[in-house]
Amino acid sequence: MADAKAQAARQVPRPLSPHLQVYRWTWTMAMSIFHRATGTALYFGTVLVAIWLLAVASGPAAYDRVSWFFGSPIGLLIMFGYTWTLMHHLLGGVRHLVWDFGHGMEPGTRMQLARFTLIGSVTLTVLIWAVALLTR
Predict the structure, then answer these.
(1) Most buried of 39, 44, 50, 105 (most Cβ within 10 A)?
(2) What are the pLDDT digits (tens) for 90-114?
(3) Burial class (CB in 10 A: 0-12, 13-18, 19+), 95
(4) 10 Å Cβ neighbour count for 51?
């Protein structure tokens, strides 16, 4: 018992691992965090798809209520956000797939791929919504 206390007193405290406050923010770091956040958000978006499917299966009254909600301004905003989340996570997954094959690991290319993930997801989301609204 005394040996354990003496040994604990002799140990030098280990340094804490650096965290977000220490590192300089980069595009790849931000897109990695966004990729995790969008993956989590997709779970909640899947609940929306399940609600829509249940409404379709439940009959016209339930479907009308769900269609009204998804057609309302808040519903459209939620669906727009879900579309962006899906596109961002998709492009982030493609970026990781490219990296898994050993390509795009150079510093400049890595940053370009991270930027493309954000710019591409916004572009695809706007394009999808433009096509959907114009073909209505």
Answers:
(1) 39
(2) 999 999 999 999 998 898 899 999 9
(3) buried
(4) 14
